[in-house]
Amino acid sequence: MTALLQPRLTGKGIYAITDGPRDDLFAAVEAALAGGARLLQYRDKTTDTERRRAEADEISRICARYEVPFIVNDDVALARETGGGVHLGREDVPVAEARAALGPEAIVGVSCYGSIERARQLRAEGADYLAFGAMYPSSTKPHAPVTAHDVLTQAKALGLPVVAIGGITVDNAQVLIDAGADYLALVSAIFAAPDIQTATRRFADLFDSRPGLIR
Ligand SMILES: Cc1ncc(COP(=O)(O)OP(=O)(O)O)c(N)n1
Ligand SMILES: Cc1nc(C(=O)O)sc1CCOP(=O)(O)O
Question: For binding Mg(2+), which residues are annotated in this chain's numbering (predicted)?
Answer without folding.
Answer: 74, 92
